[in-house]
From TrEMBL:
It is a multi-pass membrane protein. Belongs to the autoinducer-2 exporter (AI-2E) (TC 2.A.86) family. This is Predicted PurR-regulated permease PerM. Keywords: Cell membrane, Membrane, Transmembrane, Transmembrane helix, Transport. It is found in: Cell membrane. Pfam families: AI-2E_transport. Its main location: membrane. The lineage of its organism: Bacteria, Pseudomonadati, Pseudomonadota, Betaproteobacteria, Nitrosomonadales. It comes from the Bacteria. GO terms for cellular component: plasma membrane. It comes from Nitrosomonas ureae. The chain crosses the membrane at residues 30-49, 61-83, 156-175, 212-234, 241-271, 277-296, 308-341.
Amino acid sequence: MNTKEYILQFARLVVIAILLMGCYQILHPFIPAIVFAMVVCISTWPIHLQLRRALGGNTTLASLLMIGGMILLVIIPSALLAFSLADNVTAIIDAVKVFMQQGSIEPPAWLKDTPFFGEQFIRYWKGLMSGGKEVGMLLTGLLEPLKNFLLNLGNVIGKSLLQMVFAAFIGFFFYRDGEALIQMLHNGVAKLLDGSLGTDPLVQIHNTVTGVVYGIFGSALAQAIAAMIGFLIAGVSASGAFLLGSATFFLSVIPMGPSLIWGGVSVWFLYEGSYGWAVFTVLWGIFVISSIDNFVRPYLISRGSNLSFLLVVLGASGGIIAYGFIGIFIGPPILAIGITLVQLWTSQPLPPIKITQTNHQH
């Protein structure tokens, strides 16, 4: 290859690099939406195929119905949760502050009737409240970080709603043109890797994504539905049960996250004097909601991926830091895909190393 050909090849590489950088700059704001749409479409593709067959092969209508389901199950609950946090957190925290600053707070009536330990609890409560307004100010100061956290959470969810809307728009085209996109991606991966992994990585990626999504978000949806049913049985209003169920869905990726919801509801029932419903909420949370987390999630994840729960939490937390609230959906699948590809590469045997011996003469 002469000097002129080297210059032409270098110029081509420079042009390609510039084009790739330009494409990245253009698409960079939409990367979370694109990845989210990919995760949703990959994990729900079998449902899309069944729906398309039921509609006589009408791909456009099937794609629209799938996007409608995504809006109904994910985007609308996220919007309602964000608006509820923004509207109600400040008022609730301020009301609690006023209540705490009143000085000594009388213990609830049910505390005195607690078997065996009622008098001890009352003495401990009065000792704690003996500080009067000082204790109230201390507890009020502790509420301020909680208020800021919940408000920031609402803002993060609100900012991610636009990405979810873009994801719904992008997802329609992924559903409609899915076969062509998969074939193009398959050809590109085949040329790039040249069979070096010994297996089709797209099959492994599909199994991994579906396993993680079904395990994490399938169990999260089941927990949310179970929590909502329990709250409705306990007499919570339909709107309140829906919002509490939505919060249970999003907190399910955090260890002991759902217990913050049903535990808080049970405490509220206790203070209201509804002891039976408080006990029911605790039992429902332990034996129904937590059972889904302890048994259903590991089973679903193990069917398509061996991603540990620690990596699930790291993926969700890192996804939130990197992409905002939408990262809770795309963080674990991205991490699972990376680990799967590393496992495929490292599982391939290396060619034997030939060691030549040389005789050294002294």
